[in-house]
Design brief:
Elements lengths: L4 E2 L9 H9 L19 H18 L5 E6 L2 H13 L5 E6 L2 H10 L4 E7 L23 E4 L1 E2 L4 E2 L11 E4 L16 E5 L10 E6 L16 H6 L9 H16 L2 H21 L5 E2 L11 E6 L5 H10 L2 E2 L10 E4 L6 H18 L1
Parallel strand pairs: 1-13, 3-4, 3-5, 5-8, 8-9
Antiparallel strand pairs: 2-10, 6-7, 9-10, 11-12, 12-14
Helix pairs in contact: 1-6, 2-6, 3-4, 7-9
The chain binds 4'-deoxy-4'-aminopyridoxal-5'-phosphate.
Length: 361
């Protein structure tokens, strides 16, 4: 068996020890006589899995007690719609700072229910920057201000938490949660699809300040109601138990590896290596993002001649480096280097890039 270095943006590489443990426990989960996916979500085995996952996530991310944690199916996109239903009155304004594709998606998902306001956007420069805070036009009486902490496609990341006054800050941390220290208390709501840094696709995490759950929001079915979900322990209906279990293993692995400080150190190191390989290539490779806000998680780059894209991908695959094709919105290449990507993977990619340039430059 040989496993490649997998630069997939999500579903993304999982830590090998997590996959090995899941494999070991697949047929007989800790003496239960069945796999965890075959057991009731209300049974003692799964309840322990679910509780441990929340406990460990709270420790890993540093989630204060006055914040609730929900584990929900439906992906990050679903949360983008549910936030409008749960936290905005019908037609209430909500501010959006749009710094890439996922910020645009957030707008679209909330559109039927709120009065959308674009407080700032970097669309004018092709989403290569973050508009300075003092240029944002925030709306009085807005339900929330939404940002995308890390734009997975455009490779743009907030390095600081913006100050938005008393209006709660809502943030999509799908592709950067647990990659470094985070002051949760600065946010009203944080949400993340798990399939990048937290585990498998099929489950999302919602971290929400409890007092916000008192808001009336809009008419909605119980299943779309965060308050009801919280009261039911995120089990209003059958939850994605397998995904929840894998998320728990992944979070535990991150704690065992040293937690968010350690992953901040590794991420900084990996990102530096990769941007140095790009910037040091004399224009053979190119990343167009404002260096001050370049993502530590997703590194989009272009070859100077897109006729070389095909050979680059084919030869990379030969070298054991997979899933480097850029998103169709941008083209080119993208290397996603989440917590499960070891430094050796990024070193191998940087070495391959230099070698490819020598042969094709
Ligand atoms: N937000 C961000 C930042 C993302 O990267 C993605 C998925 N790549 C989404 C939202 C959408 O997530 P999902 O597919 O889980 O709905």
């Amino acid at each position: 068996m040989s496993r490649a270095f997998n630069f997939s943006p999500g579903p993304a590489a999982l830590p090998e020890p997590v996959l090995e443990q899941a494999q070991r426990e697949m047929l007989d989960f800790r003496g239960a006589g069945a796999s965890i996916v075959e057991l009731s979500h209300r049974g003692p085995e799964f309840l322990e899995v679910a509780e441990a996952a929340e406990r460990d996530l709270r420790t890993l991310v540093g989630i204060p007690d006055d914040y609730a944690v929900l584990f929900t199916a439906g992906g990050a996109t679903t949360q983008q719609a549910l936030m409008a239903l749960n936290f905005a009155d019908p037609g209430q304004p909500a501010d959006y700072v749009v710094t890439g594709h996922w910020g645009q998606t957030a707008l679209k998902q909330a559109a039927p229910w709120v009065d959308l306001r674009i407080a700032a956007s970097s669309e004018g420069d092709g989403f290569r920057s973050i508009p300075p805070r003092d240029t944002w036009q925030l709306t009085d009486g807005a339900a929330y201000v939404h940002i995308t902490a890390n734009e997975t496609i455009h490779g743009v990341e907030f390095r600081d938490t913006p100050d938005v006054g008393d209006v709660p800050l809502f943030a999509d941390f799908s592709s950067s949660i647990a990659s470094g220290p985070l002051d949760v208390s600065r946010y009203g709501m944080i949400y993340a699809g798990a399939q990048k840094n937290l585990g498998p696709v099929g489950i999302s995490v919602v971290i929400v300040r409890r007092d916000l759950l008192e808001r009336a929001g809009q008419p909605r079915a119980e299943i779309f109601d965060f308050r009801s979900q919280l009261a039911a322990g995120s089990m209003l209906n059958t939850p994605p138990t397998w995904n929840w279990y894998l998320l728990g293993l992944t979070v535990k692995w991150m704690l065992d590896e040293g937690g968010v400080e350690e992953f901040a150190r590794r991420s900084e190191h990996k990102a530096k290596l990769l941007y140095a390989a790009i910037d040091g290539s004399g224009g053979f490779y190119r990343n167009d993002v404002d260096p001050a806000v370049r993502s530590r998680m997703n590194v989009p780059f272009f070859l100077h001649d897109d006729g070389l894209d095909g050979p680059f991908l084919a030869e990379a695959k030969e070298a054991g480096l997979i899933s480097l094709k850029g998103h169709r919105v941008l083209g080119g290449m993208r290397a996603s280097i989440y917590n499960a990507m070891p430094v050796e993977g990024v070193q191998a990619l940087a070495a391959f890039m230099r070698d490819f340039q020598q042969r094709h430059g």
